[in-house]
Each structure stands twice: as C-alpha cells, then as structure tokens.
Design a protein that fits this description.
heterotetramer, A alpha+beta (197), B alpha+beta (303), C mainly alpha (219), D alpha/beta (810), A: 197 residues, alpha+beta, N-terminal domain of TfIIb, 3 domains, 3-stranded antiparallel sheet, two-stranded antiparallel sheet, 19% strand, B: 303 residues, Alpha-Beta Plaits, 2 domains, 4-stranded mixed sheet, 9 helices, elongated, MopterinOxRdtase_cofactor_BS (chain A), iron-sulfur (chain A), 4Fe-4S (chain A), TAT_signal (chain A)
C-alpha cells in the first residue's frame, strides 16, 4: 500500500480530505452526485473545536453550528463529529460521542430554574433571583447555626459540616477551581466528586 | 433523467440505455470492514443516525446487544452479534456491521422498475434516489443481502448511501470516520483490497488460518468488503450469505422474461392484426339472418 | 341487408355491467402492471399520477378485479363447462380461423375458444391475486420470506403475461367476429349472428319455451 | 495514566484486567488495536465476562470478581520463581534491596500493627531500617532475608497456580499462559501496558488491586518506558481535573491535603508534609510543599494572606475525621446531621451504592440544590415514579432547587484527560432557555452570601470576605482569568538565583520551579503552572507533530506536570542513561543533559552518576515493591474476599475480607450471605451509554433501550430463565426487575471446588430521560468502600435471581 496508515488516517481529515480524496479521483463523481445526492449540510456552518464531555480519553470534537456568528444569526448546533487533527481520537468517536448532538438537544435538557417546596408534588418554575436568594438564605442560616469555629481542644478548625457539596465530573477545571474557592471559603468540608463512581 | 451528469453513472435502474462511458478513469471506492478489529461499539450506527438524521423508535431489549432489532428505513447500518464456540471450545464473539454492500452488480438495481430510482455512480456507490422511488419493494427482492427496507410512511426504499453526500465533497462516510478502532476503513477499492491482504496475513499469523476477504464475485464484487477470520464460513457472522448471488428467480424475472413477455404480447397483437388483414372480419350474412329467423320461427310454429 | 326485427338477448344488464367493470379493471391492471414491468412502458405510470400512485392503486384495482371476476365466474361457469363437442370444434378450429365456420361443428352458447378464455382467466386472475398479495409491499412485505416473494414476483409476471395474451385474443375475437361486441354493449345478438356462430344454442333457444323471454323485438 | 493514550501502540503485551477498555474507552482502545497491527502486540484480557475487549483479544482468561490480587500475586510468584524479571531495572529503580524493619510481619491475614477496635493499622512497623544519617539501609546483593525482594518472595509463596485457580476459578492452564505472556516483557526492549479502570478500583481492595499490577510492572521493568506503565482509564471528561484541583473533602489543589485538627499550626502542618529523602541525593517534589502551599494561599486570599497570619492558614477548614466522602455524607444525612446538599452535575441517587439509603437520606435534608444540564433522578427523588422510584411526595419536606446549566458545547474552559493533558475547548452556541454556566451560578451564590455577611455579619466571615475575586466580570468570571489564576504569577519582581533572570511583577509563571514560599508568587494549582504563560494559553495548542510517531505529541495542548507526557520517564533509560529499548527511546543522557521526545522527569542536567532515583514522588526515589506507609491496608497486597462473597478466604479463614475496608457499623446489617444470595454480581457500563446521561440522548436510547442483566446459559437453564424474559435480581438491599440476556459469555467458574455463577448488571437505567425506565443497578450494591480511596464495591457482591413477569408500571 502506497500510503502509510498514519497518512491514511490523516487524509480522512476534513481539510486534507477534500484535496487528497479528490486526487484519488473521487472528485469527479462529486460533480455528478452533487445533483443527485443530498446536499452537503456543513458547507457554510461554523466550526468550533471542543472536547467530548464524556470519558477521559477527551476526544477532540468539531462542533458545527448554523449561522456564521453574524449578529442576527443565533447559533444552533447542527452536527458534531471527531476532530481529525486530535492526536488521540484522530477524528473517531464512540457511540456516545457520535451521538453528542442528541444530548445537547435532549428534550429533557433544563431551560428554567425550578423549585419544589417542602411536601409539594410538582416542580414550579421560578426566577434565578428567587432560586439563588433562597439558596443563599438557607445556606447562611444553617452556617450561622452549625459552623464550628473551634474544636473541644480549642484549636481553630473553622468547619461547616451540615451542608455538603458534590462537584461535577464534566465541568471545566476553571469551574472546579472557582467552586473550590467558594466552598472552602465557607468552611465546607463535606465535599466530594465523582472520581470513584 | 434530470440534470445529472450522466457520464458519472455506470448503472441506472429501469434504464434500457447503456450509460455513457467516456469517463472511464474514475477510481472505485470501497469500505473495508475488518471484523477482527471490530468491538461492536455501534459508533458507526450512532454516526450514521446522526449524520443522516435518522432516529428509529426506541425499542426493547430483545436478548441481544443488537439494537434496533433490524435494519429499517431509519436504520441503515446495524451491528449484529453472534456468540460462537469454536472447535477448541473457546468462545468467539463475532460482531459484524450489517448494511448495504454496494455490489458491483446490484440486485436491487436490476429489480427496480422505476427509471433512475437506483443508480450506481462511477465510483461504485449504489444510491437510492427517493424522488424517483415508487415503493414497490422489488429492490428488497432483488437484493442478495436483505438490505433495503420500505418505509411504511412515505413508501420509499431506504438503505446506506455510503454517505454519498460526504463522498461527493471528498469526505469519508460518517461510520468510517467515527469507527474508534479503525475496523471500518475507506479508500480506493484497490487500496482497500491491498490493505485487506495485510490484515489477512496478520490474522493468519495469529492462528486464523481461514482468514480472508469477503468480496463476493458472484455479484461482481462489492464496494463494502469484510475481512473475516473465518472467510470459509461467512454465515457464522449472523448469516452473512456464504454464496451471495442475485437469485435466479430474480434474474429470470428481470432478465429473460421481460423481452419474452413483450414479444409474446406483441406477437398476440400482431397475429390479430395480420389475421384481420388477411382473413378479414367474420361477418353475419343476410342468409344467416334468414336462416336464423327461420330457425326461430320454425320452432315457434311447431309446438 | 335488411335489419332483422327479432333479436336474442345474449347478456343481461347485470352480465354486461359486471363484464365491463372487469374489463376496465383489467385494462387498468395491464397499464399499471406493465409500467412496473418493463422500463420501456414506465411512461404509462403517468396515467395514474406517477410511479407512487401506480404502485399504490394497482393492488386495489386488483381486488376489485378479483371480486368482479368472481361475479363473472358465478354467472358464467355453468355455460363454460367443457363438453366433448368442444374438442371436436377445436379440431376443426382452422375453419373458424379462415372464416369458414360453416365447416366446423355447430356450437352451443359458447365455443371452445371462449371457454378457454373463460377458464384461463378463471385460473390466472386468482393466481395473479394471490401472488400479488405476496408482493404487496405495504401490507404483506414482511408476511413471507424474500425467496417466496421472489417466486411470487416471477409467477405474477408470468401469469400477467399469459392473461394479457389471453385478453388480446379475447379482444381481437370480439372485433373480428363482427357484431359480437354488441352482445356485450347492448346485450343482444341477431338470429343470424346466433345462426352463424352458435347455431346449436339458437336451436336450443328456439325449442325451449323457458327461453321465450330472451327473444324479443328489436328495441 | 502514566503514559499517553497513543503510547499504548508501543506495547508488546497489552493487559486489560480490571477494566473493559474497548467498551468504556473505544477511542482510546484504538491504540491497542494499533499496537496489535503495528507492533505485533498480543492483547490479554482477564475478566469475569467475555467482554467486547475480549472479542478482539488474543487471549482471554476468566476470573471471579474480586480475586484479582490472588491472580496477580500468583503472577509475581511465577515471575520470581522463573526469574523472569528485568534484573537491572529492579535493582536500580525499585526498593527490592532495601531492608525492612524487624517489627514488620504478616500472619494469618493481618500485617503487624493491627488495631482490632479501630479497625485500622498502626503503620509504624512498615518501614525500612534506617542508618545513622536517616537513610534507608540496603543490600544490593539481595542476600539479607529482610530485604524487600525476599520478603515479597515469602509473601507470595502461597499463591501457587493451584491456589490461584482455587480462589479465582481461572483454569490453571489459562493462568499460566497469561503468566508466560506477561513474563515475555521482562526483556529490556519489551514492554507491557496495563489498562484498567473501575474493574479494579471499585473493590474493598481497589487500591491494592492496582498496586499489585504496579509491582508486576516494576518487576518487569515496564514503568516509565514507551508502551509500558500503569494506565488508569479514567471515567469522566474532567474527573482528573477535579481531582487535580482537589475537589475532595481532604484535598487542596495540586494534591496538597487539607489540614486536620491535629495540624494546629502551619508549622505543625508543614512538618508532616515535607518529605525527607530516604536516600542520599534524592530529590522530591514534595520538598517544595511550602512553596506550593504559600503560593496557593496567596492566590486564594491575596494580600490578606500574610506572613503574620501564617498565610491565612486558619482560614482553611480543618478535618476532624480523615474524610467526609460520599459514604459518610449519606450516613450523616440519614442520621439527620445534614441540612443541605448541593449536587453540581452529579446524580447521586443513580451513582451511589444502595439507592434506598440514598433516597431516605435526601428525604431528611432541608434543602437540595441540583445544578445540571439534564433532568436528573436526584433532582426528582421526591417524586413518585412507580416501582422505579416509589416516593411519598407529601411526606418529604426537602426543598429542591433544580438549576439548569449549560453543557460542554456552550462554554469555554479546559478539561484534564486521563493522560493529564489540559485541553482547552471553545463555546459553540448559547445554552437553551435560561440555562447558565456553573461559574455564573456559583458566583451568584457567592455574591449573595458575601453580601449577607457584609450586611448581617455571622459566623466567621473572614475567609468569605477575603477570598480573592478580582475578576473583570465578577458575576461571571472569564475562564481564561481563572486559568491564569491557577497557573500563577509573580507578585513582585523575581530574580532567579542561578540565571539572574528577572521575572517582572504580574508576569505569568512558566513553571512551578518559580514558586516561592515568601509570598512573592501566587498559584492556584501548582501542578498546572505553565499551562497559561506569557506565551499564551498552552492548553489551546494544536500542533499534533509527533516525533518518530511515538505517541507523545508534545506540542498538543499541555500536560501536567511541566508538560511531561510519560511519568517516571527517567526509568525508560538504564542507570547510565541509555534507553532500555533503543528503538523507542523516551529520554536519554547525551553526556551533558537529558534529551528526547519528552520532558525529562527531573533536572535536565542531573547526571546519571548522581544516582537520583526515578520515582521522585517517593522519599527513596524508588519504585515500591514494599509500600512503606502509603497504603492503609498493608505494604504488600493480600487477597481478601469481597465483603459479600460466596466463599471463605482459603488463605486465612479468620480474616476473610479486608480488615480495614471502609464499612460503617450502621451498614453492616445490610450485607447478605451466600445462603440467601448465592450468586456473585458485578456491575458495569455498556459502550452505548455514559452513566446516566446518555439515556437522555435519543440515539443512545435507541442503541440500548432497556435495562437487562447478563446471565450465563447454565444458570439460566437451572432457573428456567428464557432469553429476553423477565427476571428479578435481589440483594439484601433491594431488587431490580428487568430483562435477561442469556449468554455464552459468562460461564460458571469452579471456585474452591464449587461452581460459582456470575451475574452481570449494567447500570445505566433510571426513571428520567428517553430510554425505558429501570430500577438501576445501585438498588443492589453494598455501601462498602475501598480501604484507601473509599470507592464503593460495585464490582463484587451477592444476589439471588428468579424468573418473574413484567413489572406493573403506572
């Protein structure tokens, strides 16, 4: 085989592919098929580089969205595929990654803050201000009540054990860092993440 | 035909014309599915559904990882799983991606009665042009691999297009790109055949002495080929046909019967015409009328 | 030639309506069927509103055809029972073809040729119907295996071709044997027509008091 | 992972044990396939089930869940007995020759120092003999019976092939063939890689499972080399990052640990952190702990962290118990000790062991906050969903806030992958509706609380009022600014002691070596220093050039520490600095400095003759065949049965399971025995799904729509279970009613002479999303944690199974 596998994988990449496959002679077919086949849907879509949100292989993604980021065009993600330049996944994706579009647009994605009062049987939609004001109030009241400044031996311990936090597993390191700052500056110690499960 | 560049078709369904053949140097493409590298992850299925905007109804667990349970108008490719215990008593999990084989001599195209509803591009891709499809289901009968499925909604036939929309702009098909282990490769048919040879050597060195390429010549070879560890028994892989060919029944139906039937019908009509011209009409004569009247009257009088 | 004043009712109104329903269906079946059989004739699908319509209506017309033809069978099976003299007639068929019918044996209500048409269709139409059901994709696409469907498609085509040929013969005969058409349009024949083509039938009619009502003045 | 994903292709043997890489990490697994194709590698799979990975393996051996240590100790015995170890490597780079204290012993399943009452070990006897200077004594001839290698030989001598087979149920011939394949990589130019994941961690002996394989790898000389290493295939996209940034009860960013009550002052705290080298001339990262810590406090509290207040040491909370992990948190909830809980993108009702216990715990909270892009089960724990979530809403007094978040495609930021690469990603579109980023939400809560404390006062507000928050947009800080804060910058002009180069105040730092302990540098996460420098965002680099195509790609994104791609890469070369495998060198000594495709593991000019050990995280600089003080459950790995096991421990019946496993007394009654629950169950993931997220994605719901369990043909026949029929699987804690997949891929194992059936329980189904409703595997699993990491024992427990009919749903 004239091509090494590396080169082979390479030319399946988006940019290179067009020219290399064209050289192999697939281009001519293109002219004909253009009239018969489904129009290529990404021709002018905006391409954004991203990383898969699932496992830790961290496959590179190309996210295609409608619109060219003009002021009046509201970007909407229409397709996601692997980034052929990424050294690990080289354009491939697993069945989860290949279906990322459906999680971005899942019908069960949340759009509005919702609140369930004690004993209620349903959620009701609330404003962000209501939700965050109420959460902060609940947290402060409990912290003021249960904060431990010194232990029995008189050591300053400054901990708060009655409210806990579970951190995400897919949020960015920047989010994590900010979360750490908020959580620890409150003295929170019941703090964990999804590392084990 | 519409505004297609017909030079780039090498076969068109229900066409009595030989397609133009001036462009004779277009490379044939092929998808090579190396079953020995396939982990059955269904990334190809997901990528196919995502790219082609296909979503089957959510089904049930049916006692296998095979989901959905069958190909359908919205399932163009499907992983099939077979648990096989070999002669040594060791388990082999033979997983095969099923879908259109893009035959060089496509049975579906042969059977199709709607002009231009099935076409074969010069690069070998067999594509369904749904605009022209009449939903008769003949392609289902023509296919040696049981691939096309007719939609109950729009009554059109669907199957893998080999992502003709992607290939036409110089990209590989969506399943090929997604495949995490490189079990699906795409390139020129010559390159794929050669690469398959390397893979078969490797498999033989690992004890699969019957490893081989599945590129059945009875259908002129295919543009989707398999590297199989047990090329001597393709049917182990969830019923991949051992000897696929266009059924002789279909060949008879779509081959010899067509001209014979036309000749037969025409002959009957012509016979009539020539008979009419040579023998003329069989007319009732005046004498007949008289005789007839007489016969009627006679009896009337006799009772 | 003077027009006879007496005519013989050959087909009742019910007979005729039933026949023409069958005939129309059959023609539509031929046109739609052929359009899906040979690409050369695909243009015929335009008569039905395109390929999809053709594919969709063909089996439904087929159902009507079958029911309609069942009506014909019920009405005509008895008079088409094969008799010994049919064989004799067939042996002398060359005289019929060369318009020398007088040399052939006398014929009852139907001659052997007509009986062949009747029984051919009685055989072919159900065959077409049943094989058609197997390949009726919309409702029965998954009911049978693909090899069965392939065989059905072949049988359907063969039967259709046979039926078309029989139909061509039938239609030609109706044109060739002049005034036959009137029997199926207006329902009656002249005594001379009966004398010439179905003399035995005429004689039976004439001698059968039960059949008096079939002989009437020309309308 | 010690190595990169692509580096797997350099392996000669790939062992997948304690994981199912093909199923869980298909795109990473491609490099295993590449190894087979490009390098002629053999893939070996050891797993209770014939998995998707096994389907492409060259050799498969079955094993009973929870017996990996017995198997691997058997491998160690085999290697030592056949002398199939890489001698020079073991001598130079491991502690094989160091001499262990006299007090150390192992008897009847217990190591020395066990405290019955506390269910823990006093580890003081698990140490080396020290000489006058405080350095570890050693015997390079390995003659001393107390040197590590001899103690190890003695320890593993019980793990004969017969014993391994008796415990694991692995046929002896298969076990021995796996040993042979592994042993083939003792050659210096051959490498074996170990790929593992939750199949090892989710056991009461999880850490020891991994340790045992690490020891095998050290004996074979496979750590630090191309195609070698211990490669933990981490599960979530940024779980490495969250751990790196220290989002665990006892951690701070960069693996510094949160002070405990006993650390009454900064000096006391620091005294336990600064490692003293155990060998002359050894270097260690942790010698710089104070620099990392002070720089962190400066990032966290800015000018308020001063020399005078011990860099605001007291503003950090101190732990009274070692951990407030998830098991503890839900125990506290059930005991009414918790008021509120905030779940950020986490679905504990689905993820934690013993679902019923989780539901009861959440019901006792005053408030629950969930932050997630998706409608999670946790946020609806209070709602009745029939048998899959029977809840009496009216009786549950918990206030619940369900906050909608943006997802990966809708924000900028970095994620740390399994190979420690920090990769930047870009926003493609806005989130749906009113969804907001976690940064915006956490900032919103922060500002409200800070304002309240400013207005109202309250309990110890100092840290809250003084935490740095000088972002351009304080209500929604830019991820780039946060990344720069983690990277760190100079607070005053800094002059390098050796080169006299000056780093101007305010300049972003290039590496953690620039950090100081005098308050002149700030860095939010020292291991990330270098990720965002004055040259720009290093995490956004996209140069995929890969010298010699060896799978390093050093200019793609950025890896911690210091952009090093293969950890312990010093060990890829022999003591003289020549690569063990000349065709795949990682780094080598050119006479003046270390050169190669990767960033060397220590000072680029440190001469090989200086004898600095390659394992610079350890005080002795050597790979540990004897774990000294790091493991809480023993310096050598020992086979203990899972907490729920069908058999006795044939090695030491009195000590059946890990004596120091994390088990709360209140949970002991929830364990079942073999009489009522005769079958071994193990939970796992399917490749079509990611935890409990993808059931919300239509394609994935189509690809694997409905809950099922996998049952071997023999057991199915015995129980009259049909293919695809309904079954009820029960443990002492709960039940799952679902479909059965009767398969040839699970066969009964002969364990201690008795047939043992294994039932596989995939875990993806719940009661929200698009896939069909399910009970969830965690209805069955026990609340048992690994002794070291508290990871729940999801991989081995007991159940019963019976044929049943479809559940009645509302």
């Amino acid at each position: 085989m004239a091509l090494t596998r590396r080169e082979f994988i390479k030319f399946t990449g988006l940019g290179l592919a067009a020219s290399s496959l064209g050289m192999l002679g697939f281009g001519a077919a293109g002219e004909a098929q253009a009239a018969a086949v489904r129009p290529f849907k990404l021709t002018h879509a905006t391409e954004t580089r991203n990383t898969c949100t699932y496992c830790s292989v961290a496959c590179g993604l190309l996210i295609y969205s409608m619109g060219d980021r003009a002021k009046n065009a509201h970007s909407n993600i229409i397709h996601i595929e692997g980034d052929p330049d990424h050294p690990v996944n080289r354009g491939t994706l697993c069945p989860k990654g290949a279906a990322l579009l459906d999680v971005v647009h899942a019908p069960t994605r949340l759009k509005v803050p919702r609140y369930r009062a004690a004993g209620a049987t349903e959620f009701k939609e609330v404003s962000w201000d209501f939700a965050l004001d109420r959460i902060a109030r609940l947290m402060k009241d409990d912290r003021d009540e249960n904060f431990v400044e010194k232990n029995a031996a008189g050591t300053t311990v400054n901990r708060w054990t009655s409210v806990g936090m579970l951190a995400a597993s897919a949020s960015s390191s920047e989010t994590s860092y900010l979360t750490w700052k908020v959580v620890r500056s409150l003295g929170m110690v019941v703090f964990d993440n999804q590392a084990r499960v | 035909m519409s505004d297609l560049q017909s030079q780039d078709f090498i076969r068109i369904s229900a066409s009595t014309m030989t397609p133009p053949s001036a462009r004779s140097h277009e490379d044939q493409v092929a998808k090579l599915i190396d079953v020995s590298r396939c982990i059955g992850c269904k990334a190809c299925q997901a990528a196919c559904m995502e790219w082609n905007d296909l979503r089957q109804d959510i089904g049930h667990f049916e006692g296998s990882y095979q989901n959905p349970d069958d190909l359908s108008p919205s399932v163009w490719t499907l992983m099939k799983f077979a648990e096989y215990e070999n002669e040594q008593g060791n388990l082999e999990w033979l997983i095969r991606k099923d879908g259109c084989m893009h035959c060089a001599d496509p049975g579906c195209l042969k059977a199709c009665p709607a002009p231009g509803a099935i076409v074969q591009y010069a690069n070998g891709i067999v594509d369904f042009v749904s605009d022209k499809c009449i939903g008769c289901g003949y392609c289902v009968k023509g296919c040696p691999f049981d691939i096309p499925r007719i939609s109950k909604v729009d009554h059109k036939s669907y199957k893998c297009t080999l992502c003709s929309d992607r290939v036409s702009v110089g990209l590989e098909p969506a399943c090929v790109k997604a495949c995490p282990t490189g079990a699906i490769m795409f390139g020129s048919k010559a390159d794929m055949t050669e690469w398959a040879g390397e893979r078969i050597e490797d498999l033989k060195s690992r004890g699969f002495s019957n490893a081989g390429l599945y590129d059945p010549q009875a259908v002129g070879g295919t543009h989707v080929m398999y590297v199989l560890h047990h090329a001597d028994r393709p049917s182990l892989y969830s019923g991949l046909p051992d000897h696929p060919q266009i059924s002789p029944v279909v060949s008879a139906w779509k081959g010899i019967l067509k001209p014979l039937a036309m000749i037969g019908i025409a002959a009957a009509a012509l016979a009539g015409i020539f008979h009419g011209v040579t023998e003329g009409p069989n007319e009732v004569t005046e004498k007949d009328e008289e005789e007839g009247e007489r016969a009627l009257n006679e009896t009337e009088k006799t009772p | 030639m003077s027009r006879p004043n007496t005519v013989i009712v050959r087909y009742t109104a019910v007979n005729r309506v039933n026949h023409w329903i069958t005939a129309i269906c059959f023609v539509l079946m031929v046109l739609s069927g052929l359009s899906m059989f040979h690409p050369m004739l695909f243009f015929l699908s335009a008569l039905f509103g395109g390929g999809q319509w053709t594919r969709a209506v063909h089996p439904w017309i087929g159902i009507v055809l079958l029911i309609s033809y069942l009506g014909l069978i019920i009405q005509f099976w008895r008079e088409n029972l094969v008799e010994r003299e049919d064989i004799e007639w067939l042996k002398q068929a060359q005289f019929v073809i060369t318009n020398e019918e007088e040399n052939a044996p006398e014929v009852g209500r139907n001659n052997a040729g007509q009986k062949i048409v009747f029984w051919s269709m009685t055989f072919l139409i159900p065959v077409l119907f049943l094989s058609g059901l197997v390949i009726w994709e919309v409702y029965f696409g998954e009911a049978t295996s693909i090899p069965v469907q392939r065989a059905a498609a072949l049988i359907h085509s063969l039967a259709a071709v046979a039926a078309i040929i029989v139909w061509v013969v039938h239609v030609y005969a109706a044109i060739w044997v002049r005034d036959s058409m009137r029997a199926m349009t207006q329902g009656y024949v002249t005594p001379g027509w009966a004398w010439r083509h179905h003399r035995k039938w005429l004689k039976e009619l004439a001698s059968d008091p039960q059949s008096k009502h079939l002989i009437r003045k020309r309308p | 992972m010690t190595n990169t994903w692509q580096d797997i292709k350099n392996a000669n043997i790939v062992v997948v044990m304690g994981g199912n890489a093909a199923e869980a990490h298909p795109c990473g697994f491609k490099w295993v396939i590449e190894a087979k194709i490009e390098n002629g590698a053999k893939l070996v799979v050891v797993d209770p089930r014939f998995t998707r990975t096994a389907s492409v393996a060259d050799y498969y051996a079955p094993i009973r869940p929870g017996t990996d240590i017995a198997f691997l100790n058997g491998v160690i015995r085999y290697l030592l007995e056949k002398d199939a170890i890489q001698h020079e490597y073991v001598r130079a780079y491991t502690n094989a020759g160091l001499i262990v204290k006299d007090g150390f012993s192992f008897q009847d399943g217990l190591f020395s120092g066990f405290n019955e009452e506390k269910q823990s070990y006093d580890k003081s006897s698990w140490d080396y003999e020290l000489d006058d200077q405080g350095f570890a004594k050693s015997d390079d001839t390995w003659q001393d019976p107390r040197c590590v290698i001899n103690l190890l030989k003695q320890h593993v001598s019980r793990y004969t092939p017969e014993m391994v087979s008796r415990i694991c149920g692995t046929p002896q011939d298969k076990f021995l063939h796996v040993c042979e394949l592994m042993a083939s990589t003792a050659a210096p130019d051959k490498a074996m890689t170990s790929l593992f994941a939750l199949g090892w961690t989710q056991h009461s002996v999880g850490s020891q499972n991994i340790r045992t394989m690490a020891m095998v790898q050290l004996l074979l000389g496979n750590i630090g080399v191309a195609g070698g290493g211990m490669n933990a295939l981490r599960g979530h996209s940024n779980i490495q990052g969250l751990t790196d940034v220290g989002l665990l009860s006892n951690l701070m960013p960069g693996y510094m640990t949160l002070p405990q009550d006993k650390d009454t002052s900064l000096d006391v705290y620091m005294s336990t952190k600064l490692y003293k080298p155990l060998r002359p001339g050894q270097t260690s990262y942790w010698q710089n702990y104070r620099k990392f810590f002070v720089s962190f406090q400066k990032a966290m509290f800015g000018d308020a962290a001063k020399q005078e207040n011990d860099w605001a040491y007291d503003w950090l909370p101190k732990l009274d118990i070692p951990l407030y992990d998830i098991i503890k948190a839900f125990d506290m909830m059930n005991n009414g000790q918790m008021t509120g809980y905030i779940c950020q993108g986490f679905n504990p009702l689905q993820a934690f062991p013993d679902r019923g216990r989780s539901r009861r715990g959440l019901s006792k909270l005053k408030f629950l906050v969930t932050m997630d892009p998706l409608d999670t089960e946790t946020s609806r724990f209070w709602q009745d969903f029939g048998p899959q979530n029977p809840a009496k809403s009216a009786e549950i007094q918990t206030e619940v806030f369900q906050l909608p978040c943006t997802c990966f495609a809708e924000e900028n930021g970095s994620l740390v992958n399994s190979a420690r690469w920090l990769q930047w990603h870009w926003k493609a579109a806005d989130g749906p509706g009113e969804a907001k980023s976690d940064i915006w939400i956490m900032s919103g809560i922060f500002h409200r609380l800070r304002d309240m404390y400013r207005k109202e006062g309250g309990a110890f507000p100092d840290p809250l009022l003084n935490v740095t928050w000088n972002y351009t947009n304080p209500i929604d800080p830019d991820p780039e600014e946060l990344a720069k804060e983690m990277n760190g910058r100079a607070l005053t002009d800094l002059t390098d002691a050796t080169t006299s180069a000056v780093t101007k105040a305010g300049t972003l730092l290039d590496g953690f070596a620039q950090l100081r302990d005098d308050g002149t540098t700030a860095s939010g996460c020292w291991i990330f220093t270098g990720c965002f420098t004055e040259k720009g965002n290093q995490m956004a680099r996209r140069d995929a050039t890969d010298p010699r195509e060896q799978g390093i790609a050093p200019n793609w994104a950025w890896a911690w520490p210091a952009n090093r791609r293969i950890l312990y890469n010093r060990a890829s070369a022999d003591p003289d600095g020549k690569p063990w495998n000349p065709s795949k060198p990682v780094i080598s000594w050119n006479g003046a400095r270390w050169v190669g495709v990767d960033v060397p593991d220590y000072g680029p000019t440190v001469k090989p003759s200086d004898g600095v050990g390659p394992f610079i995280m350890n005080a002795e600089g050597l790979g540990r065949l004897f774990a000294r003080d790091q493991m809480v459950d023993g310096p050598f790995p020992e086979h203990y049965e899972p907490l729920e096991s069908p058999v006795e421990n044939v090695l030491h019946p009195k000590v059946r399971s890990n004596p120091v496993a994390r088990v709360l007394a209140s949970d002991r009654p929830t364990f079942g025995d073999v009489k009522s629950f005769p079958y071994v169950a193990t939970t796992y993931r399917l490749t079509e799904h990611f935890h409990f997220w993808t059931k919300h994605a239509l394609i994935n719901a189509i690809l694997q729509p409905e809950e099922f369990v996998e049952i071997g043909e023999a057991l199915a026949k015995e129980k009259g279970i049909e293919q695809g029929g309904w079954v009820k699987v029960k443990s002492k804690r709960g039940e799952v009613v679902c479909k059965a997949y009767v398969t040839k891929r699970i066969k009964p194992l002969t364990v201690d002479g008795k047939p043992t059936h294994v039932i596989g329980v995939p875990l993806h189904w719940g009661f929200t999303g698009q896939a069909r409703k399910g009970y969830g595997a965690n209805s069955l699993t026990p609340p048992v944690g690994d002794a070291n990491t508290q990871t729940p024992e999801f991989k081995a427990f007991l159940v019963d199974v019976e044929k049943t009919s479809a559940p009645v749903t509302a």
